[in-house]
Amino acid sequence: MKYGTAHVEDLANAETIIDVRSPAEYAEDHVPGAINCPVLDNEQRIRVGTLYKQVSPFEARKLGAALVARNIAGFLEQQFLDRPKSWKPVIYCWRGGQRSGAMTTIFRSVGWDARQLEGGYKSYRHAVLGELESLPRQFRYRVLCGATGSAKTRILQAIGNTGAQIIDLEALACHKGSVLGVLPDAPQPGQKMFESQLLQVLRTLDRNRPVYVEAESRKIGRLQVPEAILESMRAGDCFCVEAPLAARVDFLLRDYAYFLENPDGLNRRLDALKALRGKETIARWQAQASNGAWRDLVGELLEEHYDPLYKASQSKNYSGFGKPQVFPASTLSPDGITAIAHAILDSAAGGSTAN
Q1: Span 23-40, pLDDT tens digits
Q2: Share of residues in the chain with pLDDT > 90 (%)
Q3: For 282-314, what is each residue's pLDDT tens digit?
Q4: CA dist list (Å): 52 to 44, 45, 194
Q5: Fewer CB within 10 A of the terminal residue: the chain, N end or C end?
Q6: CA distance linking residue 8 with residue 124, whole number of Å
Q7: Count of alpha carbons within 13 Å of 50, Cβ hemisphere only?
Q8: What's the whole-number mean pLDDT along residues 50-57?
Q9: CA dihedral defined by 289, 291, 296, 300, rounded to 10 degrees?
Q10: E-assigned strand segments in the chain
Q11: In terms of pTM, does the model score above 0.85?
Q12: Longest dimension (CA), the chain
């Protein structure tokens, strides 16, 4: 290792990780646990870049150096003066270049053993993609299946509450996985952030214990599920929740209660189904939403749209769906969900709740 440098494998044990990229770069994705101390903020980065292209690299470097020095001084005074001499931060920028190099140099001149991440964020991102190709294949998956409205996500979370291992892909994606799955006031992360968070979860799991997941399609909202975990899930054992239509309608009316308060928002989402269901059907559903005929609307959405799609998708994509263990659910109340979770765990463990 070069003097004053760190590698991606060192990040796991780093005392402090400092991302000196702009806030916009940091928001798109960053090393888990890293704090953002931008040596150039969003506007300053644009100013320097424009000067570089339109005037000269030399003029851009002069302006950039002044801004970087001023910003580093601010972070030093406001955030790091209390750090002991033994402090060992790892610092990175986009490619391990001038931005992180400047902060590393100044911090080392103070006396801290600051290290610059070789290759910067790009080396971290490369490592994430490589690990996401191999790590998901090292687990045994137990897949919760069931028609839309079967409370699969809530059952998965109840299984997790017992101490069993789960991956809640929809929680990571901030989306419920269907055309109506957009969550209010909770925008989806970018693809890179989604993958970083997924890898973080995978790293905490025990390879000797099964992992419970919910059956998903290739995309959750606008996010792509990495191919390795999708393939591994599709080869897993299926546990199918079967609930009557009325119970599913009741559950969805509770779980999507925010749509009842915003029928206009729901109607905008329903517009996306016109190509599949036709203008007349969508107009009828939108009228039901506007008039508060919620049970009729949800029942028709399930019977005419979601259930046919579910039957075609699961039998095609999940090898275990041809012979799943079936768990009837007469109610999807909170107590009913907990009971189903324990029944699945008991069945999977051969009659005991060990997992």
Answers
A1: 999 999 999 999 999 999
A2: 87
A3: 999 999 999 999 999 999 999 999 999 888 776
A4: 12, 11, 33
A5: N
A6: 6
A7: 6
A8: 96
A9: -40
A10: 5-6, 16-19, 35-36, 89-92, 115-117, 141-145, 165-166, 211-214, 219-220, 223-224, 237-242, 325-328
A11: yes
A12: 74
First to last CA, the chain: 42
> In this structure, are residues 177 and 220 in contact, taking their beta carbons and an 8 Å threshold?
yes
Q: What three-state secondary structure class fits 79?
A: helix
**pLDDT per residue over 236-284, tens digit each?**
999 999 999 999 999 999 999 999 888 999 999 999 999 889 999 999 9
> To which residue do tokens 């968070």 refer?
197
Number of other residues whose CB lies within 10 A of the CB of residue 226: 23
Gyration radius of the chain's alpha carbons: 25
Q: Cα–Cα distances in Å, from 1 out to 16, 107, 115, 116, 117?
A: 19, 19, 11, 11, 11
102, two tokens: 């400047």
Q: Do domains 5-130 and 139-348 have the same CATH topology?
A: no
Structure tokens at 246: 């009325």
What does 77-109 look like in DSSP terms, one character per residue?
HHHSTT--TT--EEEE-SSSSHHHHHHHHHHHH
Concatenated DSSP letters of 144-156: EE--TTS-HHHHH
Q: Which residues are catalytic?
A: 93
Question: Which amino acid appears at position 312 of this protein?
Answer: A
Residues found in the chain: 355
Region 187-201: mean pLDDT is: 97
Domain-wise residue ranges, the chain: 5-130, 139-348
Alpha-helical (H) ranges within 256-327 are: 257-260, 263-270, 274-277, 279-290, 294-300, 307-317
Closest Cα partner for 259 from 224, 298, 229? 298
> Angle of helix 152-161 relative to helix 334-348, nearest 10 degrees?
70
Architecture of domain 139-348: 3-Layer(aba) Sandwich (3.40)
